């Protein structure tokens, strides 16, 4: 998915101080148009999707959508042509987006981010379907997407980390089976990953399919817990060149001693790259790991994986806006946004 378009944005974004650019349109990241969503009717909108639908296509201004506390029972899609949107709750326990859908991974998703330069803050994103089928809470497709202090909750396939570069900071991610999966290049920092599997679950199913793909998941200063001792793998290869590293991470006894699964395909033992660096806790005992996984013993070996440069974060991770203004576009509903899922 990374294209000429993406490299152009990369070059332009990296030049100005905190400015950002999409297709040559300069975006002031310190300033945002403010839209409020409030179920009580005191905001601009009562539904989150209505606020997103009001944002003009190819918006050249940052848009900060503040969502007041409440349980929002709706599917939310941020379409590909609406970059620079932030969805922010007050705190993740009080602003909850929930839906219940299953089987088709994208159609079942509660929140889908197709746009680039998206930020999510202080939200719970839940798929309440429960056990028995794929039921995605959050799908992330767009490039340069970041989530802060969010909770992603489901059972099977919670976080579909599909493509491009993503940053997850201080998030809580819960599930049982392959619950962080996809072919993105992602950095998880200070996240709490909680498994609800009773046996043989897997935290990750990363999908890198060739040696040329620059994708993979890196977890740094995270915490891994689960409901039962020796019940969950660190990862298994959805794609043969699957790449996952955990560093400076606490692992409870929920982690299986062998650590990693080859998903019954011995070839992946040679093609995957599964590593651990300075992890601790009773689930982190490296002597019991499968021989084909990597204990990264030196800082040099670990360095490519353990900072935001893994996702070129130094070029695009942005601070919260400091100034807000009223929208110059009309606050009206332009459709449900769901048609943008067609074709995926
Ligand atoms: C979250 O927000 C709600 C509503 O504003 C508040 O009552 C609650 O104390 C907050 N919780 C935390 C952990 O800040
Ligand atoms: C386990 O980790 C320790 C410290 O990180 C290291 O010294 C040791 O060599 C590792 N053992 C194996 C078998 O990799």
From TrEMBL:
Enzyme class: hydrolase
Signal sequence extent: 1-24
Pathway of action: Glycan metabolism; pectin degradation; 2-dehydro-3-deoxy-D-gluconate from pectin: step 1/5
Gene3D superfamilies linked: Single-stranded right-handed beta-helix, Pectin lyase-like (2.160.20.10)
Its job: Acts in the modification of cell walls via demethylesterification of cell wall pectin.
Domain Pectinesterase catalytic: 35-313
Pfam families: Pectinesterase
This enzyme's EC code(s): 3.1.1.11
Gene Ontology MF annotations: pectinesterase activity
Keywords noted in UniProt: Aspartyl esterase, Glycoprotein, Hydrolase, Signal
Similarity-based family: Belongs to the pectinesterase family.
Superkingdom, taxonomy of origin: Eukaryota
Keyword Glycoprotein on entry: yes
Protein name in the entry: Pectinesterase
GO biological process, any: pectin catabolic process
Keyword Signal applies: yes
Reactions the enzyme catalyzes: [(1->4)-alpha-D-galacturonosyl methyl ester](n) + n H2O = [(1->4)-alpha-D-galacturonosyl](n) + n methanol + n H(+)
Source species taxonomy: Eukaryota, Viridiplantae, Streptophyta, Embryophyta, Tracheophyta
Catalytic residue list: 178
């Amino acid at each position: 998915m990374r294209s000429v378009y993406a490299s152009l944005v990369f070059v332009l974004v990296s030049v100005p101080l905190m400015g950002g650019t999409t297709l040559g349109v300069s975006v002031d990241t310190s300033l945002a148009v403010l839209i409020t969503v409030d179920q009580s009717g005191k905001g601009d909108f009562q539904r989150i999707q209505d606020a997103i639908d009001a944002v003009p296509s190819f918006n050249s201004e940052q848009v900060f959508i503040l969502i007041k506390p409440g349980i929002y029972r709706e599917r939310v899609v941020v379409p590909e042509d609406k970059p620079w949107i932030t969805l922010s709750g007050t705190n993740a326990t009080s602003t909850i987006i929930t839906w219940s859908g299953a089987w088709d991974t994208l159609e079942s998703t509660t929140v889908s981010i197709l746009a680039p330069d998206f930020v999510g803050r202080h939200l719970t994103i839940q798929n309440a379907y429960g056990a028995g089928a794929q039921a995605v809470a959050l799908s992330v497709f767009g490039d340069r997407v970041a989530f802060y202090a969010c909770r992603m909750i489901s059972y099977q396939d919670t976080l579909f980390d599909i493509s491009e570069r993503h940053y997850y900071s201080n998030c809580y991610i819960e599930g049982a089976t392959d619950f962080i999966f996809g072919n993105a290049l992602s950095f998880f920092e200070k996240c709490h990953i909680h498994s609800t599997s009773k046996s043989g679950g897997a935290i990750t199913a990363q999908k890198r399919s060739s040696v040329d793909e620059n994708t993979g998941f890196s977890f740094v200063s995270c915490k891994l817990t689960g409901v039962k001792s020796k019940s969950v793998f660190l990862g298994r290869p959805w794609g043969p060149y699957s790449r996952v590293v955990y560093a400076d991470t606490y692992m409870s006894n929920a982690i299986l001693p062998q650590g990693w699964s080859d998903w019954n395909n011995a070839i992946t033992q040679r093609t995957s790259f599964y590593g651990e660096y300075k992890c601790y806790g009773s689930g982190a005992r490296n002597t019991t790991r499968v021989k084909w996984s990597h204990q990264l013993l030196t800082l040099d070996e670990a360095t490519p994986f353990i900072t935001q440069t893994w996702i070129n974060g130094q070029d695009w991770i942005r601070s919260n806006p400091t100034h807000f203004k009223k929208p110059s576009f009309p606050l009206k509903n332009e459709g449900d946004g769901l048609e943008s899922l067609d074709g995926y």
